[in-house]
Specification:
With 533 residues, the protein is α/β, with parallel strands linked by helices. 32% of the residues lie in helices and 18% in strands. β6 and β7 form a beta hairpin. The structure holds a DNA duplex (13 and 9 nucleotides). This is XPG/Rad2 endonuclease protein.
DNA sequence: CGTGACGCCTCTT
DNA sequence: GGCGTCACG
């Protein structure tokens, strides 16, 4: 929804633009808008949970647009939505209900053999899932495209990035379809960008410094502007019946003060103001100013603009409506795409049944989680750092990229453990992080990785998006840090086995030599736990 | 004249 | 998420 009719209202200030204008600059991208558009090309597959090539067309769509930007020497920074805001629950429940009913009737049509009718309904039933976002993230990693998962609203994160300098991760403009970016006071927004890079640009400078047929924001400040947006109706707070963007603008223009507008509305008998409207209104305005965002520099959550207690005394310091705080370790794990921001579970890298996450890590840490492995498929992705997963067959699979001299290699092994024991253990530990500080010597097999090809217009085969590259493999002893953390977890379970065996990478059926393990001491073992709030 | 409810569209060849 | 249309006050 964004802000009701805001875009149409702002039309006088919107000008056509081609992204080439931002050549050499950085542009933030609202991942949701491209994901959503791309999902249309494969809505049925997505709704039915198909994992065919067809179900991945949304990825192709997205990456085409990324390549377009890179072709014009623009650095894309993709921003994903994180957890949902409490005050947005009403809006989202409504959408969910409609999607569900559409999905039901779509399946009915399909049963009746009406494919065409079914597709139409599936298109209204598609929703962007964390799994889809995560599939995309894996490609972005491989393609060295910057991305961040916002703790809550992507719009807020994007607006925050637009306030930062480029060398601190900032962006010069934002591409989105959502008018909320304007309410968040994002200085440069590009709407409706097509596949050639043509779009419509809104610059706040233009809005506040020019006059256009009776429409002027010259004497507006940020406070008044967001006040107008909230009055017109936003996702956090529906507007008072009878008030739209034009009346909102007039009210602000007339009273030039939010409190005066509120009291004027209260006295006006034409409108029915809910008892709690003024408080909700204040909160909604505060979200647009002080939303919780992720700061990549400090690797912590922060408010877009610091909020003093005196700003909103009625809250008694309760700022949860801005998005509850999270411990830094969790915030980072979310931002870097390791934790599902809705469930706080580690992502199931096999993209199968949602698994119960136990532990998760970032960067140089290993990720450990139980993942049900189906159809005995080989692991088919690679990632920076290391990941592990517990398979149905009670194995932990470890994948890690290692630097040996000038060469980057991929290491894959499996360790057998007792799953039940492991689950119990891990659950009792909560979500833990295990930095890789051990130095265990393990002999493993290794494979050379191909350097990623970032040629903008090079066609990629989608089936090729994530495999561990196969090439010559040979045995070399390497320090495998992940090993230590495996032991930490496994040793707590008496039934766990410490068998280590090599596993053929990806789909290559090539025979790899068995690896052997050499144990050493792990004195530097550190387990960090997520702090309770 | 402005609001709000309704239906239609976003992709792909 | 947006857009255009149209009945209503």
């Amino acid at each position: 929804m964004g802000i009701q009719s805001l875009l149409r209202f702002m039309k006088p200030f919107i000008e056509p633009v081609h992204i080439e204008k931002y050549s050499g600059k950085r542009i933030g991208i609202d991942a949701y808008s491209w994901l959503h558009k791309g999902a249309y090309s494969c809505s049925m597959e997505l709704c039915l949970g198909s994992r065919s090539e067809g179900a991945k067309r949304f990825l192709k769509y997205f990456m085409h647009h990324i390549d377009l930007l890179r072709h014009y020497k623009i650095t894309p920074v993709v921003v994903f939505d994180g957890g949902s805001m409490p005050c947005k629950a009403a809006t989202e429940n409504e959408r969910h209900r409609r999607r569900e009913t559409n999905l039901e009737s779509a399946k009915e049509k399909l049963k009746q053999g009406d494919v065409r009718g079914a597709v139409e309904l599936f298109q209204r039933a598609v929703r962007i899932t964390p799994s889809m976002a995560h599939q995309l993230i894996q490609i972005l990693r491989k393609e060295n495209v910057e991305f961040v998962v916002a703790p809550y609203e992507a719009d807020a994160q994007l607006a925050y990035l637009s306030t930062l300098d480029a060398d601190k991760g900032g962006v010069d403009a934002v591409i989105t379809e959502d008018s909320d970016l304007i309410a968040y006071f994002c200085q440069a927004v590009i709407f409706k960008m097509d596949r050639y890079g043509n779009g419509e640009e809104l610059l706040l400078d233009r809005v506040f410094n020019s006059v256009s047929n009776e429409l002027s924001f010259k004497n507006f400040d940020k406070e008044l502007f967001t006040g107008m947006c909230v009055l017109a109706g936003c996702d956090f707070l529906p507007s008072i019946s009878g008030i739209g963007i034009k009346r909102a603008y007039s009210l602000i223009l007339k009273y030039r003060n939010l409190d005066r507008v509120l009291s004027a509305l209260k006295l006006d008998k034409r409108y029915q103001i809910p008892e709690d409207y003024p408080e909700s209104f204040r909160k909604a305005v505060a979200v647009f100013h002080h939303a919780t965002v992720y700061d990549a520099e400090t690797k912590k959550l922060k408010h877009m603009k610091p909020l003093q207690h005196k700003d909103m005394p009625s809250l008694n310091g309760d700022l949860d409506f801005l998005g509850p705080e999270l411990p830094p370790s969790m915030a980072t794990a979310i931002a870097e795409g390791h934790l599902n921001p809705l469930t706080m579970e580690a992502f199931d890298y096999f993209c199968k049944i949602p698994s119960r996450a136990d532990t998760s890590t970032v960067d140089n840490c290993i990720t450990i989680f139980p993942a049900k492995r189906m159809n005995n498929e080989d692991i088919s992705y690679r990632d920076q750092g290391s990941q592990m997963s517990l398979t149905q067959e009670s194995c932990i699979t470890i994948i890690s990229d290692q630097q040996v001299g000038d060469e980057e290699i991929t290491v894959t092994r499996q360790v057998k453990v007792d799953q039940k024991k492991y689950m119990k253990e891990a659950l009792s530990l909560g979500k833990l992080i295990a930095p890789l500080e051990s130095q265990q010597q393990v002999e493993i097999h290794m494979e050379r990785s191909e350097t990623p090809n970032n040629n903008p217009f090079k066609r990629r085969k989608l089936g090729d998006i994530n495999p561990i590259k196969k090439s010559s493999s040979h045995q070399v002893p390497v320090l495998l840090d992940a090993e230590k953390s495996v032991d930490v977890l496994c040793s707590s379970s008496p039934e766990s086995q410490e068998t280590v065996e090599s596993k053929p990478n990806n789909k290559s059926k090539a025979k790899h030599p068995k690896s052997t393990k050499t144990k050493t001491d792990n004195k530097n073992s550190i387990l960090r736990f997520f702090q309770p709030l």
